[in-house]
Amino acid sequence: MKQVFLESHNLKNKFSGFGQFNYHLIKAFAKQKTEGFTLVLHAKDTAILKQEFGQVFDYKKYKGISRHKAFRIKKKYNLWHCLNQNIKIEPFFKTPYLLTVHDVHFATQTPGHLTCPQRDRFNLKLERCTAIVYISEFAKKDTHTHFKVPDVPQYVIYNGNTITDIDIPKSFVPKQQPKQKYLFSIGEFSARKNFMSLVRILPLLPDYDLVLAGNNSTNYAKELEALAKQLGVAHRVYTTGKIEDVAKQYYLQHCEGFVFPSLREGFGIPPIEAMAFGKPIFISNNTSLPEIGGEHSFYWDNHTPQHMAEVVLQGMKKYSLKKDFYTQWYISRAKSFDWNETAKQYIDVYQSILS
């Protein structure tokens, strides 16, 4: 029986972007029929995975030392699937190699004449590739713009919606509860996510609080807190830190709208999660986000406070006048991003390479 090795050690950070991608793709794989090959999960805690998935998969325990060239995994698999472009773990032997590219933002963050370990590592991955999967048309275009891509089969396979079942206990209340209606966003506290722009619009939106979820132990989070105090809106900004799924669902269900002013996204799962609740979506008009948002999301063409606030106010007005239409459209669009369909497309790619 042939074996497809999934370099999936990012499962150890289940609530990170890559962790969510790995987990939900694997969960969808467990529901599919695979003929002629088995999938091998590479993870730190294989016991937990075995409890959830049993004998559906084979397992290989992750060891950090395997990042180093001399200690790379020496078993030769029929196909090695590298699940994101940043992974340092590579096969010891030359083997059929599939790479999933989420985002190559590092190509523009570091000037081309300077050394960038991520860029160098990515070039080596491209040289290994038997085939490439991109998670959006933007990710494909951006990769071709900044790198010499080999002449191998290439595919665009969208991610799925991570929220398929809404399950919030009636008694559940999050630790932080805004005092008035609120806008919600979730992601890493970094310049790329551009949460600072949301704080700047609060003086222009006095009827709304702002809830931001994600790792708030960063320097960016401290700068955001200082800005909120400077603008006199600190009492209206709630930073929750990392949250469990039930809290995320609660905030999505009860928010007035979902706001996502990101400067760069290879895909962007959070807006799709918000769509599942039928909420109005306010997102940046850049990179992959128009692919995700579709024609009835509301877009920011720039991030000046006046423009952003106006888009929110006008969008809320349009949404309220045709609430049933927008709600159903968002829910339907969220359902179109299906992890089971994503898994089926990956299996087709596996079969093509293995044959």
Protein architecture, described:
The strands form two sheets. Strands 3-2-1-4-5-6-7 form a seven-stranded parallel β-sheet, with helices on both faces. Strands 10-9-8-11-12-13 form a six-stranded parallel β-sheet, with helices on both faces. The model has no long low-confidence stretch (mean pLDDT 94). α2 links the parallel β2 and β3. It is of the alpha/beta class and 355 residues long. The longest helix is centred in the C-terminal third of the chain and has 17 residues, at 305-321. It contains 13 helices and 13 strands. It is globular and about 60 Å long.
Radius of gyration from the alpha-carbon trace, in angstroms: 21 Å
The number of distinct helices, counting runs of at least 4 residues, comes to 13
What's the quaternary structure here? single chain
Number of beta-strand segments? 13
Beta-strand content estimate: 15-25%
Biggest sheet, in brief? 7 strands, parallel
Low-confidence stretches: none
Structural class: alpha/beta
Q: Roughly how much helix do the residues carry, as a percent range? A: 25-40%
Q: Give the helices and strands as they follow along the chain.
A: EHEHEEEHHEHEEHEHEHEHEHEHHH
Shape: globular
How far the N terminus sits from the C terminus, by CA atoms, comes to: 13 Å
Summed over residues and divided by their number, the pLDDT gives a mean of 94
Query: How are strands sequenced across the largest beta sheet?
Result: 3-2-1-4-5-6-7
